[in-house]
Amino acid sequence: MTNIVLAIFFGWFMVLTFMVYSVKKHYSDLITRTKKRTIDEILDTILSQDTIIKKDQESIKNVISTLQQEIRLSYHEIGVVRFNAFEKMQGEQSFVLALLNSMKNGIVLNFIYTQEGFRIYTKTVTEGKGGEFELSEEEKEAILKAK
């Protein structure tokens, strides 16, 4: 019976020795990697880094928010429709280019090919509809294609 109790104590002692050795090794590695002498210094460093990281995160959130607002106003929806402006011209050499933001505001550029060269006309678009001028069928189609 005594041998069993001694074996249990010896086993328990080995487990505790292994745990202490593991903690001591981890502590030594931690001190070596951080070049600090005490746990207090290590924790102070971690807390100061946490504060810096939180400030950086807040700054990044503000930048992202600003960029999201700017993207909504930028022209990122594009639609192109080619068409034949005049019956006597061969092929669809004229085209309409719609440049819109996410709120369907922007411009349509109408490039009309003639024998003398290109003529370029612009019209404003507000909420997917023509501003001061009526939109042609090709311009309306380009606005619908803009994605």
Task: Characterise the protein shown here.
It is a single chain. By secondary structure, the chain is α+β, with helices and mostly antiparallel strands. The chain has 2 domains: 2-71, no CATH class; 77-145. Helices cover 52% and strands 24% of the residues. It is built from 3 helices and 5 strands. The protein has helices spanning 2-34, 39-73, 137-145; strands at residues 77-83, 94-100, 106-114, 117-126, 129-130. Strands 1-2-3-4-5 form a 5-stranded antiparallel β-sheet, with helices on one face. The longest helix has 35 residues, at 39-73. The protein is rod-shaped. It starts with a helix and ends with a helix. The mean pLDDT is 86.
Average pLDDT over all residues: 86
Low-confidence stretches: none
Helix share of residues? 40-55%
Regarding quaternary structure, how should these chains be classified?
single chain
Number of domains: 2
Backbone structural class: alpha+beta
Overall shape: it is rod-shaped
Q: How does the major sheet shape up?
A: 5 strands, antiparallel
Radius of gyration from the CA trace? 36 Å
Strand order of the largest sheet: 1-2-3-4-5
User: What separation lies between the terminal Cα atoms?
Assistant: 84 Å
- Strand fraction equals 15-25%
Order of helices and strands: HHEEEEEH
How many individual helices? 3
